[in-house]
Design goal:
The protein is α/β, with parallel strands linked by helices. 27% of the residues lie in helices and 26% in strands.
Length: 271
């Protein structure tokens, strides 16, 4: 084996159309493609540190610098790609997930690139190992939900994405009513759940914790929003004994933007 192969490794991630790619590049010396054990193991370790449940496929692309004939460089770049593939398979990587092994040949350098030309060429003598990853599972923050279920514990927050209000208003929108209709059905199913309806506002100065309701002209907007939801759920036959309501003003921002702070949440108080 060639012992003078210099290996440089870098990792980076990018997201394109919600698919993530993780790339490791292995750089070779001029006209070489053999791997020694230490260098090859670095490639295997690269894959091992990646979440195996998310690896959808592996692609291997070989390249050369611009020195030499085109046909020779295609063969050399293919040999480099195959050397990586062979060691990955011998180290336990499933051959079926390696969907591409391709020699790309030489990478031409623009005529106006004169600074650090040897360094630029050394970066072109490489193999890229590309892991195509599926999207990571959605992270559920403990205690925060977007609907009602039977496994709640006291303190759980139910944040309803459509239960938002117009600025200065406590009137339920059509979307809010549609979502509350669905929640009411679930609340009838899970009759053990008791909850507080919490109203919120945005965009008030720090010294004003509450906002003015443009309809009542009173500084009780978050309270009125919570009460509007309470009235609607009462209309949907949810027993009043299971519900309380309270306005929290601007004291509990969600951190997603002002429109999301014009909201109402349900918080489980008893099961």
């Amino acid at each position: 084996m060639i012992k003078h192969l210099t290996l440089f490794v870098f990792l980076f991630t990018c997201t394109v159309n919600a698919q993530e790619e993780v790339v490791q590049s292995v750089y070779f010396e001029f006209d070489k493609y053999e791997l020694d054990a230490a260098q090859a193991n670095a490639v295997v370790d690269f894959i091992k540190v990646t979440d195996s449940t998310r690896i959808e496929s592996v692609q291997i692309f070989g390249y050369t610098d611009d020195i030499g004939k085109e046909n020779y460089n295609y063969v050399l770049s293919t040999n480099r790609a195959n050397a990586i593939r062979d060691f990955l398979v011998s180290s336990g990587v499933k051959n079926r997930i390696i969907v591409t092994i391709e020699g790309k040949g030489r990478i031409l350098i623009d005529d106006d690139v004169v600074d650090n030309l040897p360094e630029q060429r050394s970066k072109n003598r490489r193999v890229d190992v590309v892991l195509n990853l599926t999207e990571p599972p959605a992270i559920q923050i403990p205690g925060y939900y977007t609907t009602v279920n039977k496994k709640h514990v006291v303190g759980d927050h139910i944040y309803l994405e459509n239960l938002l209000f117009e600025r200065g208003s406590s009137k339920l929108t059509y979307k809010a009513k549609v979502q509350l209709d669905k929640i009411a059905l679930l609340l009838h199913r899970y009759k053990n759940l008791h909850f507080e309806i919490q109203g919120h506002v945005c965009c008030t100065p720090p010294y004003q914790k509450e906002a003015i309701d443009r309809d009542t002209k009173k500084r009780q907007l978050s309270q009125n929003r919570a009460q509007a939801v309470h009235k609607y759920l009462t209309f949907k036959k949810i027993p009043k004994a299971r519900m309380t309501f309270k306005g929290y003003g601007n004291t509990v921002p969600l951190g997603k933007g002002s429109e999301y702070d014009r909201r109402v949440e349900l918080v489980i108080t008893k099961i």
